[in-house]
Amino acid sequence: MLFYLILGAVVVAWLLWGKRKPLFAGEGWRVGAGVASAAAFAAAAYAGVRSQWPATLALCVLGLWCATSARQRPVIRKVSEPSKPQLSAGEARSILGVDAKAGPDEIQAAYARLIRLAHPDKGGTAGLAAQLNAARDRLLKGR
Prior knowledge:
With 143 residues, this protein is an all-alpha fold.
């Protein structure tokens, strides 16, 4: 019985040590945890057949812990872009080339003329098209 407890402690120590320094590249640790889980359940079955209930319980808990850690997926967090400063109305007018008295039709016409040249499908850049979109939205929607 003591052998199984020591074996379980070694497996737990090995898995916890692996958290600090990855033993396997990529998803390899999941395979190791799955193998450790299967080994713990096999040892628990053997200990149960021999009526060693404390060791059986400890190995079942170890097997469940290894199985749940093997099924965990890493959390992938998106890197948030730094918030862009709000485009002022004056900047939006200068980007589109309209004056302060321009109405929605003039703004839309200037946008259409410029986006034809700046669209990525026509050889422009996505950044320039995004600036034109932001300027149009700022002037038409007042964001």
